[in-house]
Amino acid sequence: MSPRLASLAAAVLTALTAALALHFASAPTALPATAPPEVFSAGRAREHLARIAARPHPVGSQAHREVREYLVDTVRGLGVTPEVQATAAIHPDMEENSIPGATVHNVLAHVKGQDSRGVIAIVAHYDSVPTSPGASDDGAGVAAMLETLRALRTGPPLRNDVLFLFTDAEETGLVGARAFAFHHPLAEQVSVVLNFEARGSHGPSLMFQPGPGNRWLIQHLARSGAPAQASSLFDEVYRRLQNDTDFTVFLQRGKTGLNFGFLDGFMRYHARTDDLAHFGLDSLQHHGEVMLALARHLGDDALEPAPPEDAVYFNAGPFLVHHAASWAAPIALLALLAVVVALVMGLRRGRLRASGLTWGAGAVLAAAVAGAAAVQA
Ligand SMILES: [Zn+2]
């Protein structure tokens, strides 16, 4: 192959790979309300979202009370007896000047299993900030939970308990989650926490934060059939940001689990425009498909104690590739060795030149700088 042809082939292959990666990195298309009853439909969940995100509903407001009443009524309508955990609580561990506190009303829908080995807790918060209707944050998570609960009820009971926990007062400092995790008797039995959040208005729902000892959970995520978008790189980035969700509280309580969120359109976060009109319904579908698949999969799992091992994971097309974190260093060494061998052989045979290598390295650096500059602009 001539060098020119080889360059062309490399360019085409790169473009094709990028296009495929973008295709597989998007959220699934929202299903209409007429979708079969056993599947998750964003079209059906949207009806809930329209009620939840009609206007801002911060803790203590009339709108907040109405959202809670809607949750209680809907859960009861689905044949599950709701519980409201009403208690005054504070969250003393927040790294702020003041200690957040509130009288919280967590709404619980506890679906009992046939031979339960533990509780799968699905969590989203139903309060919003005062400045936003909260369609994405966290109306989408709440609406997805109601539609998931409905879809689960169409099938036979699962083995384990599934707890739908609609937390209160997340925006005032994770107070509702704190009240549940540290003061509700059911918290003791929680084996896995699946938290659903948003920091934008559309885009794929990413699994951006797993709990400790996550290898078995990542294996379940891969096997569940959920259209998971996940990368251990997200977790590394998230750890360096000063952000918290209800999931933080469960980690403090010694629990493990998975944290999901979408973040495209981040300028609408906590803004007046985080409303139904600007909301991407595909994100709701993605939240829901992942939620339902994991509820069914973990709901029938033996929940046996797994070794406390972490995973490295990433998407490759439609697959979630994962391996033990302890393999990372040997794999990296092998890759480095392969590069060194290729360089030495290439230089010896005259196929590579120092000047060409320098240009190549410079191009990689320039691409990184140009990318950062474009994002800033
Ligand atoms: Zn939130």
How large, in whole angstroms, is the Cα Rg?
23 Å
Q: Look up the CATH topology of the largest domain.
A: Aminopeptidase
Extended strand count:
10
Mean pLDDT: 94
Strand order of the largest sheet: 1-2-4-3-5-8-6-7
Structural class: alpha/beta
What share of the residues lie within helices?
40-55%
Uncertain segments are none
User: What would you call the shape?
Assistant: elongated
Order of helices and strands: HHHEEEHEHEEHEHHEHEEHH
CATH H-level homologous superfamily name of the largest domain: Zn peptidases
Main sheet overview: 8 strands, mixed
Number of H/I helices: 11
Distance between the termini: 41 Å
Strand content: 15-25%
The total tally of domains equals 2
Q: CATH first level of the largest domain: which class?
A: Alpha Beta
Name of the CATH architecture of the largest domain: 3-Layer(aba) Sandwich
Bound molecules: zinc ion
Give a nutshell description of this structure.
With 377 residues, the protein is an alpha/beta fold. It contains eleven helices and ten strands.
What is the fold's blueprint, element by element?
Blueprint: H1 3-24, H2 42-52, H3 62-77, E1 82-90, E2 101-111, E3 119-125, H4 135-152, E4 161-167, H5 175-183, E5 190-198, E6 206-210, H6 215-223, E7 229-230, H7 232-239, H8 246-252, E8 257-262, H9 281-299, E9 311-316, E10 319-324, H10 328-348, H11 354-376
Parallel strand pairs: 3-4, 3-5, 5-8, 6-7
Antiparallel strand pairs: 1-2, 2-4, 6-8, 9-10
This protein binds zinc ion (ZN).
Zinc ion binds next to helix 4.
How would you describe the overall organization of this protein?
With 377 residues, this protein is of the alpha/beta class. It folds into 2 domains: 28-316, 3-Layer(aba) Sandwich (Aminopeptidase); 318-377. Helices cover 43% and strands 18% of the residues. The chain is built from 11 helices and 10 strands. The chain has helices at residues 3-24, 42-52, 62-77, 135-152, 175-183, 215-223, 232-239, 246-252, 281-299, 328-348, 354-376; strands at 82-90, 101-111, 119-125, 161-167, 190-198, 206-210, 229-230, 257-262, 311-316, 319-324. Strands 1-2-4-3-5-8-6-7 form an 8-stranded mixed beta sheet, with helices on both faces. Helix 2 packs across helix 9 (281-299). The longest helix is centred in the C-terminal third of the chain and has 23 residues, at 354-376. The protein is elongated, with a radius of gyration of 23 Å.
